[in-house]
Design goal:
- The complex is a heterodimer of chains A (475) and B (528).
- Chain A has 475 residues and is of the alpha/beta class.
- Chain A contains 13 helices and 22 strands.
- In chain A, the strands form 5 sheets. In chain A, strands 1, 2, 3, 4, 5, 6 and 17 form a 7-stranded mixed beta sheet that branches. A 5-stranded parallel beta sheet of chain A has the order 8-15-9-10-11. In chain A, strands 18-19-22-21-20 form a 5-stranded antiparallel beta sheet, sandwiched between helices.
- In chain A, strand 4 and strand 5 form a beta hairpin.
- In chain B, 36% of the residues are buried.
- Chain B has 528 residues and is an alpha+beta fold.
- Chain B has 3 domains: 137 residues, OB fold (Dihydrolipoamide Acetyltransferase, E2P), CATH 2.40.50.100; 70 residues, no CATH class; 205 residues, Chloramphenicol Acetyltransferase.
- In chain B, helix 2 packs parallel to helix 3, helix 6 runs parallel beside helix 7 and helix 10 packs across helix 12.
- The chains are: A alpha/beta (475), B alpha+beta (528).
- The interface between A and B is medium-sized, with 21 and 20 residues.
Chain lengths: 475, 528
């Protein structure tokens, strides 16, 4: 035991206060369990501090500026000036409010908060080193632990993050000025959200992507709409090229070098390079092996449907427990972990986890695509409603995209939905509820939807699947 | 050889328990599939419970006379295995039997997970890969009840699983080994008379559930009957408080060569006595534990269960639901007596003992045809009265267990001899309690022949949800007035009870008149 080491005990120890951890801690405390939450950095985790929330703030801000400046067709003439410093300040205010709220909620629910970095001593003890030299440490004995240490951006060799020129996504959300030219390595959802944002803020954006299209897991017609719109915003795409290096350019900027599989090299002049090639779990220094837990070859901790690791009284939730690395999945897992520890029959039995991409237009998906349904052995029937047939979409000036529903022909059960278009991230919630409730396509079609709304498109798509849509031709 | 446990199957709708009347097998007996192993009395029927396995009886878990909740294990079998060397229980596995060893492990696993050996968690193939069509709340309920929701067929649109589906499955699981129904000895598993509210049974079934445990201490309950016993004053006081004679408390301990009894032994003995008293529901002969100064009650407690309680519930429901009115009249049945006398030899030749009952049944059908409201059912919730198209008469039969009401169907389509034979068969099987539940269902009007025992008039309770019942007094010579003279003549006193919600007194009287007319002039029965 090191000097200054204080031993305490807790029923439930939660490591990491992101959307998995703080939710787990609050639910555990609600269940009457003595709960301790250890956080080394900032309450709310990557989501609140460096991810979902700050990016949405900037996406909204940049979108508003861009929209105001591009509404002549409506008769709106404006040339908005963006004060980037002020936008970042506003964004930080939102973040502070939310993270402060998380801290308050934890306290109000009786969660003991401990600041520091936890590492496992054995399967019943962690040591928490308090920040900074001489701050001491403490040992905490626990009956149950929930590991929710999250994830961090992947670095690629030669592109070590350095805020002045090699950006991680976190840096891109904290930049006080908009670079004239932004090179983005990676055309996944993070790269695409930021490409859209910076393009709207006036940057010349170049995206290099090793694969031959953006947004890898999505269907072609979904990708196409987003890519086309990005191109309209001036984003330049180079597919089949991997970032191989960079050098300082003569103009004070940098040269981003890429290479194709065949060895063809290209160079793009940029002022900043954003590397967004994915996220990896955070387990460094956690010493999970001391607790008898192994990580897989990608560093994730394997869990079962009750969020238990190989060591039954230790759970893992959120990004550190593997895909899907989404905040709402983490929160669900956190709730299940806490309830399982409380002895309740909770389980990760959700039928689908929705996902949203906040590009322009947005993407919202849940459940199975047509081909996935086919592979799974269903006989899928598909209904679609393009937003250019939606009255409400027209009145927003955003008619790109569609709602698509996938259902099982025999039973009518809704299996999945893909929405690309305005407010797709919101619209997908209805499809998610339909899937979880075991609703049929008829149930969705027969539910009266408010007019005039974008949500009507979901109803229309359901009617289309039945071959009886009113506002589109049924095929 | 795997040991299979067998639970008391559900033998009728709403039946929560049954009395294990007789074991037909003993441990060590060989049984074949479908061979009856026990007789169980439930609400209204005595049924034989067949084995579902070929094998040897391992253990019986219930005693004769015990009330067993549906779903409790009553017997275990050591089950034969197909094609395998059943006796290879040695730890040394022959090297080449690796595969069959695995098969063993598998089948053991099945046994542990699924007592009835049904691969219940195999999805039906209806729902491909991993999707469950049930709301989250229902999925959670399924986990709570330990049910694999993937194995359920939903009743909702497209097969969506509802909370009710899960609960129904949970009850099934608890009560019957699939696929059992056909084994029970009757095609129809519906309870004969009424659905019974299971909630009222909890106390009983939990008491019954503890009985196998109580059986063991009961064996050790033998009073030690010593002359003297050493014990501390505190222990003696405890014994007094528990109404236990300290000289009767069994003990292994001694002090100075004398038996010594400690607090624990007194408590254990008292508990054991209590257990055996609890366990004693029917036979009263072993209750004699309370000699040592316990309260001497002269009352006898008889369980209100099974047939008795079913009758009680049914009567309560009828009497408190339907406002009863009873109408009395007397038929002068000289001609009927004569007709029966003349038909008797014919009937005997046909192997039938002809009673008055078939005549009465025919006369009733004549009345029912004219006054269909007496052959009806009131469905209050639907706000409708259903006039029944069939004439199915329930015949109340007194049995040792209580009142049973077997049903003679389609009386209008049957001849007198046929009816006589059927009534006789049903009544005799009712007394032996060999009726199938289905044979006590579907009556549209009932007859109670209390006159067979004696008496003239009664106020019968309607066999709800029917709307009328006819009680028959004894056919005897009684004084009647004919042409101003009091003469002796055979008469049949009739007691008709009606549900006044559906039938008014005038209609009841007119019905009675029609029935009497047909009884007094049996030739009219030819028109039926």
């Amino acid at each position: 035991m090191v000097v200054g080491d204080i031993a305490t005990g807790t029923e439930v120890l939660v490591i990491g206060a992101g959307p998995g951890g703080y939710v787990a801690a609050i639910r555990a405390a609600q269940k009457g369990l003595d709960t301790t939450l250890v956080e080394k950095d900032a309450y709310g985790g990557a989501c609140l501090n460096r991810g979902c929330i700050p990016s949405k703030a900037l996406i909204t801000g940049s979108g508003l500026a861009h929209e105001a400046g591009n509404a002549e067709f409506m008769g709106v003439h404006a040339d908005p000036a963006v004060d980037m410093g002020q936008m970042i300040e506003w964004k930080d205010g939102v973040v502070d409010q939310l993270t402060g709220g998380v801290e308050k909620l934890c306290k109000a629910n009786g969660v003991n908060l401990v600041e520091g970095t936890a590492s496992f001593v054995d399967d019943r003890t962690v040591r928490v080193a308090h920040g900074g030299a001489g701050q001491g440490s403490e040992s905490i004995e626990f009956e149950h632990a929930i590991v929710s240490t999250g994830s961090q951006p992947i670095q690629i060799p030669g592109f070590e993050f350095a805020a002045d020129h090699i950006w991680s996504s976190a840096d891109a959300l904290d930049a006080e000025t908009v670079p004239d030219r932004l090179g983005i390595v990676g055309g996944g959802y993070i790269g695409m959200e930021l490409a859209t944002t910076y393009a709207k803020l006036g940057a010349e954006v170049t995206v290099v992507e090793m694969l031959d299209d953006i947004l890898d897991p999505y269907e072609d017609d979904v990708k196409r709409i987003v890519r086309k719109r990005a191109e309209e915003l001036g984003v330049e795409f180079h597919f089949g090229e991997g970032a191989s290096g960079w050098s300082e350019g003569a103009d004070g900027g940098y040269l981003l070098q890429t290479e194709t599989e065949e060895g063809e090299e290209s160079t793009y002049g940029v002022d900043k390079i954003l590397v967004a090639v994915g996220r990896q779990p955070v387990t460094d220094g956690l010493d999970v092996e001391n607790a008898g837990i192994e990580t897989d070859d990608r560093g994730f901790i394997e869990t079962d449907d009750r969020t238990r690791t190989a060591v039954e009284h230790i759970h893992a939730v959120g990004d550190v427990a593997g895909d899907p690395m989404l905040a709402h999945a983490a929160s669900k897992e956190g709730i299940v972990a806490a309830e399982v520890i409380a002895g309740e029959p909770a389980a990760l039995d959700q039928q689908a986890i929705p996902a949203a991409v906040f590009t322009d237009p947005e993407i919202g998906t849940v459940g199975m695509t047509e081909s996935e349904a086919d592979d799974a052995g269903f006989d899928p029937v598909v209904g679609q409603m393009p937003f250019n047939a939606s009255g409400r979409a027209m009145t927003t000036g955003h008619t790109d995209g569609f709602v698509r529903l996938v259902a099982d022909e025999e039973t009518g059960f809704v299996l999945g939905g893909q929405i690309v278009g305005p407010e797709a991230s919101e619209l997908i919630a209805e499809v998610t509820l339909a899937i979880e409730m075991g609703a049929t396509i008829e149930d969705v079609a027969a539910t009266v939807h408010t007019h005039p709304t974008l949500a009507e498109a979901v109803m229309e798509a359901a009617e289309n699947a039945q071959g009886q849509a009113i506002h589109t031709l049924n095929r | 050889m795997p040991v299979k446990e067998f639970t008391l199957p559900d033998v009728g709708e709403g039946v929560a328990e049954g009395e294990l009347v007789t074991w037909l097998v003993a441990p060590g007996d060989r049984v074949e599939e479908d061979q009856p192993v026990a007789e169980v009395e439930t609400d209204k029927a005595l049924v034989e419970v067949p084995s579902r396995y070929d094998g040897v009886v391992e253990e019986l878990f219930a005693e004769e006379g015990e009330i067993v909740p549906v779903g409790d294990v009553i017997i275990s079998f050591r089950v034969d295995e197909d094609g395998e060397d059943a006796d290879s229980g040695t730890s040394e596995e022959p090297a080449e039997s690796g595969e069959s060893g695995e098969a063993d492990a598998d089948s053991d696993g099945d046994t542990a997970a699924e007592p009835d050996g049904e691969p219940a968690d195999e999805p039906d193939g209806d729902v491909p890969s991993g999707r469950t069509f049930a709301p989250p709340s229902v999925r959670r309920l399924a986990r709570e009840l330990g049910i694999d929701i993937a194995a359920l067929d939903g009743s909702g649109p497209g097969g969506r699983i509802s909370e009710a589906d899960v609960r129904a499955h949970a009850e099934d699981d608890a009560s019957e080994p699939r696929p059992a129904p056909a084994d029970i000895g009757s095609g129809d598993r519906k309870s004969a008379v009424s659905k019974r509210d299971a909630s009222g049974d909890d106390a009983d079934s939990s008491a019954a559930a503890t009985m196998p445990d109580a059986a063991e201490p009961a064996a050790a309950v033998e009073p030690a009957g010593r002359e003297t016993t050493l014990a501390t004053p505190a222990t003696r006081k405890l014994a007094r408080d528990l109404n236990v004679d300290i000289d009767d408390v069994p003990t292994d301990e001694t002090r100075d060569g004398e038996a010594f009894v400690a607090d624990e032994a007194v408590q254990a003995y008292a508990d054991a006595l209590e257990g055996s008293v609890d366990a004693e529901s029917a036979p009263a002969d072993t209750v004699a534990v309370s000699d040592s100064g316990a309260s001497e009650s002269v009352d006898e407690t008889v369980p209100y269960r099974g047939v008795r309680r079913t009758i009680g519930k049914q009567m309560e429901r009828s009497k408190y639901t339907a406002p009863h009115v009873s109408h009395h009249d007397t038929a002068e049945v000289d001609a009927l007596v004569e007709a029966r006398e003349r038909l008797k030899p014919k009937a005997e030749a046909a192997g039938v003992k002809l009673t008055y009952m078939p005549f009465v049944m025919k006369a009733i059908v004549a009345g029912l045809k004219e006054y269909p409201y007496l052959n009806s059912e009131l469905r209050e919730d639907e706000e409708e009265i259903v006039l029944k198209g069939e004439y199915n008469l329930g015949i109340a039969v007194a049995t040792d267990a209580g009142l049973l009401v077997p049903v003679v169907e389609n009386v209008d389509e049957k001849g007198l001899f046929e009816l006589a034979a059927e009534v006789r068969d049903l009544a005799s099987r009712a007394r032996d309690r060999k009726l199938k539940p289905a044979e006590m269902k579907g009556s549209t009007f009932s007859i109670t022949n209390f006159g067979a025992i004696g008496g003239e008039y009664a106020t019968p309770i309607i066999n709800y949800p029917e709307t009328a019942i006819l009680g028959l007094g004894a056919i005897e010579e009684r004084p009647v007035v004919r042409d101003g003279e009091v003469v002796a003549a055979p008469t049949l006193p009739l007691s008709l009870s009606i549900d006044h919600r559906v039938i008014d007194g005038a209609v009841a009287a007119e019905f009675a008149n029609t029935v009497m007319e047909h009884l007094e002039h049996p030739l009219l029965l030819l028109t039926q």
